[in-house]
């Protein structure tokens, strides 16, 4: 597999005597509502990185699922929150742009947190979006049924939703009903992608995302969000393995020390975890080399935003 290949896996075949459906479904919601977990669940493979840190997803990621005679292209958008920095503004703009480009919008709400804070602001913003909207309440296994009913009523009072689904992205409860609905609701038409393709993300970009996920999981709250990973070299070797070189950019020397860890302990653990997952995804041995570089104020560098698939904010 080369660095230009898109992720692929076995997809279902559609019946020739029935019309096909296809369309784009944008998942929007507050940070840490479970959007990436849900996309991975519905696609049936990992196409979006997941961590317990908020604002993990930075740009729109597309995961492609086939269900019945429909090809459903899920757009996993960054969590919507009150932006403070340029990177924040670019992420929130990306999320709303993804919603406006979709055929259907799924608003994912964490049932435990309810409609407080950012969720309330998102409901207000959705009033201006003309596309059909579906309410999806996630983590339903953690709350009482009465609370779910109150939450459903409050959200539907604020915005007109076509349907409400109650699910658990972690266990898969309720996800089949959601997929059945999407498969029959999306417009009739040909599929946008080959049926074995599950993401439109180039492999070298996904590889960078996998390493960024391991960075977040390893360092938890120690490292600020001022970090970025780029795949700089991808070499297919004659022995069937691949050599990948990546750079982790941080803004200050003190952050570089955090990423490296004592005696290089942290960077070794991050590299090992990322290499293991990449080997499983690529189904070939991976030689991964990570370098940490200080690039001061990279959050104001338009080139870094282009690398992440974001539009650099004006002003």
Task: Note the main attributes of this structure.
315 residues, alpha/beta, 6-stranded mixed β-sheet, 3-stranded mixed β-sheet, 9 helices, 34% helix, globular
Description:
By secondary structure, the chain is of the alpha/beta class. It has 9 helices and 11 strands. The strands form 3 sheets. The protein has a 6-stranded mixed sheet, sandwiched between helices. Strands 9-10-11 form a 3-stranded mixed sheet. The chain has a two-stranded antiparallel ribbon with strand order 1-8. α6 runs antiparallel to α8. The radius of gyration is 20 Å and the shape is globular.
User: Ends: how far apart?
Assistant: 41 Å
Strand-pairing-aware structural class: alpha/beta
Largest sheet: 6 strands, mixed
Query: β content, as a range?
Result: 15-25%
Fraction of residues in helix: 25-40%
Label the overall shape. globular
Total of helices: 9
Strand runs, count = 11
Strand order, largest beta sheet: 3-4-2-5-6-7
Radius of gyration: 20 Å
Helix and strand run: EEHEEHEHEHEHEHEEHHEH
Low-confidence stretches: 1-13, 51-58
Average pLDDT taken over every residue: 82
């Amino acid at each position: 597999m080369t660095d230009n290949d898109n992720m692929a896996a076995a997809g279902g075949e559609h019946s020739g005597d029935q019309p096909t459906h296809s369309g784009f479904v944008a998942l929007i919601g507050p940070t840490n509502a479970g959007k990436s977990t849900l996309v991975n669940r519905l696609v049936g493979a990992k196409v979006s990185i997941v961590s317990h840190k908020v604002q993990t997803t930075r740009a729109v990621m597309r995961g492609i699922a086939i269900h019945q005679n429909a090809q459903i292209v899920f757009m996993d958008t960054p969590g919507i929150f009150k932006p403070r920095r340029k990177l924040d503004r670019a992420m929130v703009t990306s999320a709303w742009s993804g919603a406006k480009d979709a055929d259907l919008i799924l608003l994912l709400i964490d049932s435990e947190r309810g409609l407080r804070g950012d969720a309330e602001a998102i409901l207000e913003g959705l009033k201006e979006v003309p596309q059909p909207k579906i309410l999806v309440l996630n983590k339903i296994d953690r709350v009482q049924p009465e609370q779910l009913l109150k939450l459903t009523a409050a959200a539907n009072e604020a915005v007109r939703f076509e349907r409400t689904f109650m699910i658990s992205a972690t266990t898969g409860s309720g996800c089949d009903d959601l997929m059945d609905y999407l498969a029959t609701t999306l417009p009739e038409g040909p599929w946008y992608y080959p049926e074995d393709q599950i993401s439109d993300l180039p492999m070298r970009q996904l590889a960078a995302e996998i390493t960024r996920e391991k960075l977040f999981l390893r360092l938890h709250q120690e490292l600020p969000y001022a970090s970025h990973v780029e795949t700089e070299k991808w070499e297919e070797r004659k022995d069937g393995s691949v050599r990948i070189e990546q750079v982790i950019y941080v803004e200050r020397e003190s952050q570089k020390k955090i990423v490296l860890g004592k005696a290089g302990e942290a960077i070794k653990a991050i590299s090992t975890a990322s290499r293991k997952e990449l080997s499983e995804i690529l189904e070939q041995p991976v030689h991964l080399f990570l370098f940490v570089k200080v690039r001061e104020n990279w959050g104001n560098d338009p080139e870094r935003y282009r690398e992440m698939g974001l539009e650099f904010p004006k002003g």
